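Recap from last week: sequence in, structure out.
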Amino acid sequence: MARKKKVIELPKGYLSYSQCQMWKTNKDRYIKKYIELREDLNFDNQSMKYGKVVADALENEVHVEDALTDTMMFMLKKYDIRDKEDVVEFKTDFGWLTLFFKPDTFDSVTKDFREYKTGKVKWTQGKAEKHFQLKFYALCIYLKYKHITDITYLDWIETEDYNDMIRPTGKLTSFKVCVGIKTILETLKEVIEIAKEIETVYLTHKKEALW
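Predicted structure tokens:
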């Protein structure tokens, strides 16, 4: 009888950028959302809804019937794959780990990717360089395609509140971010540590639920 391969046990069976980021910033919220399955923690504000409208329009290559928003989306540099879900599974010293990733735009040939952001909160070069999402996606691409992302970009469509609506200001800023193998390997170590920490808490909650 074949032995069942050991996996790192996680609430959803995999790790995503959003899960990692929530664990890094608010472990209690992660536990309530992903382990205790608290539905009251699922919410969208106006800015998040606008960002989703833009993301869906870019993915499906359609207009949103707002001239300024459509113009800003047209100005974004795009590759041949847009907002496509992908996964990679790899072996660690603690078991197999699956990562889920979904770059906003991805080049199937060169393996380049870019991330788009909307919002009125200011993005800076320093903030873009520290953004964990870019490092996480570079890691996933390295593990799946054996490609080292040296350079990637974060494109920010600035928005403002206008008559209780979210609209672009007309400003688009692109930040060039260096990644490289050192950052990728550091991110690999961090992601594995996050997975192990989550597994420990998750298994403890499962045992307590049986008592």
